[in-house]
From TrEMBL:
GO terms for cellular component: TAT protein transport complex. It comes from Streptomyces solincola. InterPro entries: TatA/B/E, TatB. This is Sec-independent protein translocase protein TatB. The chain crosses the membrane at residues 6-22. Part of the twin-arginine translocation (Tat) system that transports large folded proteins containing a characteristic twin-arginine motif in their signal peptide across membranes. Together with TatC, TatB is part of a receptor directly interacting with Tat signal peptides. TatB may form an oligomeric binding site that transiently accommodates folded Tat precursor proteins before their translocation. Pfam families: TatA_B_E (PF02416). Belongs to the TatB family. GO terms for molecular function: protein transmembrane transporter activity. It is found in: Cell membrane; Membrane. NCBIfam families: PRK01371.1-1, PRK01371.1-4. It comes from the Bacteria. Residues 103-146 are annotated as: Disordered.
Length: 146
């Protein structure tokens, strides 16, 4: 719960609590806060239990942590066999390197995608640029285009 609080910050919080509430009232305040946290946790667990019971038996293994989009995608990518095949065949670093080479005008490496996907249906490959820009200068900057 308090993973991001360091030792110095914890000491500062304790000193502030002693200064604000005083040493005689501090144990009562700690008990009240602990009781409040316990009630909130019980309320949360009861609400989760009620939602699971209302959803029915087909959702008995439903976890509320799966509603987090990052956790959902991570779970789907790790469990789905079809997506594992796609992920293993796709090399993002190589694709980014090919795009960077195309932008810098370097010769592109061998494409890692099939020819039908690569667009080799007779259209020229725009990544392989053979003619230098006119005059050797950069094209003019168009502020309206950006």
């Amino acid at each position: 719960m308090f993973n991001d609080i360091g030792a110095l910050e914890l000491v500062v919080l304790v000193v502030l609590a002693v200064l604000i509430f005083g040493p005689d009232k501090l144990p009562k305040v700690i008990q009240d806060v602990a009781g409040f946290v316990r009630k909130v946790r019980n309320f949360s667990e009861n609400a989760k239990h009620d939602i699971r019971s209302e959803l029915g038996p087909e959702f008995k293994d439903f976890e509320f942590e799966d509603l987090n989009p990052k956790a959902f995608i991570r779970k789907q990518l790790s469990e789905n066999e079809d997506l594992k095949d796609v992920r293993s065949s796709f090399d993002l670093r190589k694709e980014i390197g090919d795009v960077a080479d195309a932008v810098n005008g370097l010769p592109a490496s061998e494409p890692s995608v099939p020819a039908a996907v690569n667009g080799s249906s007779g259209a020229p490959d725009l990544r392989k640029r053979t003619d230098p820009p006119a005059g050797g200068d950069r094209p003019p900057f168009d502020s309206d285009a950006t």
